[in-house]
């Protein structure tokens, strides 16, 4: 009961800070609006793209050659058969796979609706979504489908040789989601995904980091700086009770802020395939991990300013080197550094359940890592506080 009272007191103290409340509301609203409306959709770079042409007709092979020339990706590989396709999916040695289905070219000639399929890499969703969005942007901007005009040579040259058939339907771009267990492919029910769907979890995680990590670090530092922790302990409060009350407080604050940020994005049109309860569990585990990390970083410092500075610097490092804002090159040393930060596992899990529609069993690795981070930091914080606390 004493712990809950202390937690409620901590929450009320934060709520009385108008600056924190205003920032907690205004920043998610502004970022959600601008992130959903203006986040660039043409950031595809020289990723590892694989092409699989199932349309082996004469026209199909000719179209495939044109598509390869048009894409001009430096690391493009050609898939020859289903066995090679399954092997590449299992190995995860790709950023995206483009599939041209059987009968694609003939359906295009016959003015039927056509579909191209893209397979994302569940472990490189950031890169995959950029490729997917790039393809969608190209086809969305088409005024029609190019075609060679028929007639005499003179007529062909006078009319420009190549025209646009505006009556022929433009190809749809659909996403095939690979199963995390056996690699089988399922068509995504969502047909209008974009970069903003990948960007939304970043903002929510950043808000959680700012409020939970900086909040608990500042609170711990202030309690030690003014002697409040000494007063609590002299009146019989255990160190673990003090830690637990802080963790409960900032888990609640971080969770509310994260969910508020996420649903602000949802209001501005961001799509999600996540089961709400799965998302709630992931956010709770993420907030617990981040809060414990902030507690750990402040547990050996005795001033609020020093604790806030260290945690702010660490958050900056995670945003830059944790694969949060910029995709991390595969096989680079930065990829190994990113694995040391809990933010990577939170974002990976968040994107898997919201973009790919994965369930809890498919993100069990990320959840276990986040729980492991949180428990380790809690225990280490307790030991550090006890070791550095004056008696």
Automatic annotation (TrEMBL):
GO terms for cellular component: plasma membrane. Keywords: Cell membrane, Membrane, Transmembrane, Transmembrane helix. The chain crosses the membrane at residues 20-39, 198-221, 242-265, 277-297, 309-328, 363-385. The keyword Acetylation does not apply. Gene3D superfamilies: abc type-2 transporter like domain. Its main location: membrane. GO terms for molecular function: ABC-type transporter activity. It is found in: Cell membrane. The keyword Ribosomal protein does not apply. It comes from the Bacteria. Residues 19-382 form the ABC-2 type transporter transmembrane domain. InterPro entries: ABC-2_transporter_component, ABC2_TM. It is a multi-pass membrane protein. This is ABC-2 type transporter. It comes from Petrotoga mobilis (strain DSM 10674 / SJ95).
């Amino acid at each position: 009961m004493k712990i809950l009272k202390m937690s409620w007191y901590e929450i009320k103290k934060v709520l009385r800070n108008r600056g924190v409340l205003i920032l907690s509301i205004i920043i998610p609203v502004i970022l959600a609006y601008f992130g959903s409306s203006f986040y660039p959709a043409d950031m595809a770079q020289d990723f590892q793209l694989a092409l699989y042409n199932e349309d082996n007709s004469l026209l199909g092979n000719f179209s495939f050659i044109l598509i390869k020339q048009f894409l001009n990706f430096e690391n493009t590989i050609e898939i020859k058969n289903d066995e090679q396709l399954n092997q590449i999916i299992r190995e995860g040695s790709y950023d995206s796979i483009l599939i041209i289905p059987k009968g694609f070219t003939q359906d295009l000639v016959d003015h039927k609706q056509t579909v191209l399929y893209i397979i994302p890499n569940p472990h490189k969703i950031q890169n995959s979504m950029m490729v997917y969005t790039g393809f969608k942007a190209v086809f969305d901007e088409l005024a029609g489908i190019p075609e060679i005009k028929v007639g005499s040579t003179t007529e062909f040259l006078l009319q420009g040789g190549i025209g646009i058939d505006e009556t022929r339907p433009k190809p749809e771009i659909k996403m095939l989601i690979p199963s995390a267990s056996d690699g089988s492919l399922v068509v995504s029910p969502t047909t209008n995904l974009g970069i903003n769907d990948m960007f939304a979890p970043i903002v929510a995680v950043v808000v959680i980091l700012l409020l939970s990590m900086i909040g608990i670090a500042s609170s711990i530092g202030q309690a030690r700086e003014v002697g409040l922790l000494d007063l609590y302990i002299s009146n019989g409060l255990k160190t673990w009770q003090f830690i637990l009350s802080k963790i409960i407080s900032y888990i609640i604050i971080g969770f509310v802020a994260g969910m508020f940020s996420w649903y602000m994005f949802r209001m501005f049109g961001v799509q999600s395939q996540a089961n709400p309860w799965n998302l709630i569990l992931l956010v709770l585990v993420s907030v617990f991990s981040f809060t414990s990390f902030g507690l750990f970083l402040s547990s050996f410092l005795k001033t609020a300013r020093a604790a806030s500075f260290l945690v702010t610097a660490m958050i900056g490092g995670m945003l830059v080197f944790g694969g949060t804002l910029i995709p991390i090159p595969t096989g680079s040393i930065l990829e190994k550094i990113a694995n040391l930060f809990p933010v990577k596992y939170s974002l990976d899990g968040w994107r898997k359940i919201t973009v790919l529609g994965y369930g809890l069993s498919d993100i069990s690795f990320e959840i276990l890592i986040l729980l492991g981070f949180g428990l380790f930091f809690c225990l280490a914080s307790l030991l550090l506080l006890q070791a550095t606390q004056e008696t």
